[in-house]
């Protein structure tokens, strides 16, 4: 029985895409850079929550969910350095392929679209996995201290950081929400760095670009706040609120908005990456 050419082309595309993704995922995850990203992320979290973590009496009084909140907000010392750490596993992979002339070889073999999509998927998954593993290790370390998975004392109740989920649905839901947001924000930062790598072919610029973009974006939002009468509307676009606290007082709305925001930025940056990738190949 003859298979229509269109169906055969689609099957070949899916096969090539899956094969390329498997190769890129192995290159992204089975590498010292991935382990380094996990260790850097864990160190960043431990540093942010250093006072609550190492003062066991304080942590026992506040509870692990509160310490997790402190560890993930980045308010102490190292700020949003986690965004640049997210680019460590695989965001510079295009530059590596380009400098080694593997880029054109791979594109000639599997096609530009497959190559680009494979890079996008591998970069986002590697950043997400590094974040989830790091936060999982942090939770395991905190659990070994014997501190409770509750929030003790009304003075430690922080509205706007999803902490009321601990009271309403339990700590598992709270950890799931916070870790998902952290993971997707890391994927967003990694894809942004991948996009920058096609604009400025420099590994150091690629790694630091998410952090620079964050502070530049924050400065623009701060300027807009001077002319915007609706603070509630502007808060929806404050990245610090989306990642670290809440963009809305409603937990579900805030969480869903965070998902929409991250996925939108990832899609836009991915489109830019593919467009510049095609331009680079034609030159």
Write the layout of secondary structure elements.
Layout: H1 5-29, H2 32-48, H3 50-54, H4 56-62, H5 64-73, H6 82-85, H7 93-99, H8 102-110, H9 112-144, H10 164-169, H11 171-199, H12 203-225, H13 231-235, H14 239-244, H15 251-282
Structure in words:
- It is a single chain.
- By secondary structure, this protein is mostly helical.
- 77% of the residues lie in helices and 0% in strands.
- The protein has helices spanning 5-29, 32-48, 50-54, 56-62, 64-73, 82-85, 93-99, 102-110, 112-144, 164-169, 171-199, 203-225, 231-235, 239-244, 251-282.
- Helix 11 (171-199) packs across helix 12.
- The radius of gyration is 21 Å and the shape is globular.
- The protein starts with a helix and ends with a helix.
- The model has no long low-confidence stretch (mean pLDDT 87).
Protein structure class = mainly alpha
Count of individual helical segments: 15
Shape summary: globular
SSE sequence, one letter per element: HHHHHHHHHHHHHHH
Radius of gyration: 21 Å
Low-confidence stretches: none
Q: What fraction of residues sit in β-strands?
A: under 5%
What is the first-to-last residue Cα distance?
42 Å
Query: What level of helicity do the residues show?
Result: over 70%
Number of strands: 0
What composes the largest sheet? none
Question: What does the average pLDDT come to?
Answer: 87
Keywords:
single chain; 283 residues; mainly alpha; globular
What's this model, at a glance?
The chain is mainly α and 283 residues long. It has helices at 5-29, 32-48, 50-54, 56-62, 64-73, 82-85, 93-99, 102-110, 112-144, 164-169, 171-199, 203-225, 231-235, 239-244, 251-282.
